[in-house]
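Input record (one chain):
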Amino acid sequence: MRKFHLLLTLLCCFSATSLMAQVEEEDEDDNPSARIMFEKLQMQDPALGKVPWDRMRSASEQTARAKQAAAGRVASLAWSERGPNGDFSRINGNSRPNDDQTSGRIRAVMVDLQDATHKTVFAGSVAGGLWKTTDITAFPATWTLVNDELSNLAIGAICQDPRPGLQQVMYMCTGESYFNADAVRGVGVFKSTDGGVNWNFLPSTSTFLNGTRILCDNAGNVYVGTRGSGLQRSTDGGATWTNIMPTGLGNDVADLEISNTGRLHVTTGIFSTSGYRFTDAPSSVSAGTWTSATAAFTTLTREQN
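The corresponding structure, as predicted from the sequence alone:
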């Protein structure tokens, strides 16, 4: 039977080719019958020897629905710029409405848990410092530069203690970790205990020069992913740190996430082979006790995050 279907397919292809040659030869005289037959041979099911019009109609309807749905998705993804924009005129760089200066490329964004309306947002730039707005829904949003006198303004990531009563505690790591020509090296981690108003450098993090991710779990533990210094954990508010980088995955953390179950996920590899591990005991996991995925994780070289 399979040989029969293959023979039918070959015959259809041969017939279509022959008809196409005929159409091309008779193009000057126009041959509508040959063209119709050619289109029919293109659309017909070789096993049936005819065009399955019910399937054609169904496919056409599905295509129309897919186009309509895609149009809706595109429309829902219309973007409006929210900043951060400065209150001074642009000297150089990309122009913006009212000729404002912007913070530059953004790698860190955090919605403030202390704001029940979820309108207060912090944004960290790769070289322009930390910014804040109290109404991200406004257009244009009003942004305030939190502090442009910190020892380092290359904000890589920011997080907040999620525990009720302790959400005024925040951390941010510094440094752009992709070694591009204009990258600014970081100096470590900063901490705020007053909801982001004031920030203090943690001397214990002075070797964490290229921070990629920073997280705080429901127990108040802090995790910092770096390029070159591995994955660091602090259980005492940033006073001391332990390197818990999974064994065999190098020292470059590409991404770090905590799920709603408390599971900590880490992916590694920046311009190098990718890797993945997870743990359900992030507060006590050591370098050799992480769990590998049951399904193979990609080993493709990760070029950027």
